Amino acid sequence: MSDRPRAYVSWSTGKDCAFALHEARQAGGLEIVGLLSTVTRAFGRVSMHGVREGVLDLQAEALGLPVLKVPIPHPCPNEVYERAMGEAIVKLRAEGVSRMIFGDLFLEDVRQYRETRLTGTGIDPAFPLWGRDTRELARAMIDSGLKATVVSLDPRRLSRSFAGRSFDRAFLEELPGEVDPCGERGEFHTCVTGGPMFRGTIPVERGEVVERDGFVFADLLPRPSGPPDRPGR
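Now predict its structure.
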């Protein structure tokens, strides 16, 4: 049994948490034992990103990790969210988890919120990507072989035409200058379907693009073809 601290990853299905997991694995100081995701109960989708639970399950399978799903209502008042997450944290601590990995990059208020919510729980936050130049980081993600699709965006900050696009070099080159290359300010969110953190490529098909609650969502459907594709297939 490993004597390294046991860690869960705060998992949104996107590139930042996926690359944070990869970097934490590479560093080797933590034993990553699972994923923590909030799922909007009414839709059966990962909150904020709008990714189907079926795709989340395929990601977990390809990572070789269990996923603890925290169901929340829609809409979800902040106190309801915090109570649900608090119960999940208590459960994880009882299982010996002492670290929570986040993919946050530079927003101090977000980091402070996470640190405050975990204070006194016995679980400490870890931020493997914190402070890195986001343009260089975005390129490092792509160069590593990470494959991701833009699954949601804020049309007030980024054109609807970017929804459903691959997160690649062409995407970065076409982003308006005021948009963060990693979408850290909420301009866009992604879903990862391949990369060095996975055992293989996750089989998905692109679905329709819709606008809901002021955001644009590009659907990804899990392909009913069995387990994740192996690299090269």
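Residues 38 and 50 are 11 Å apart (CA to CA).
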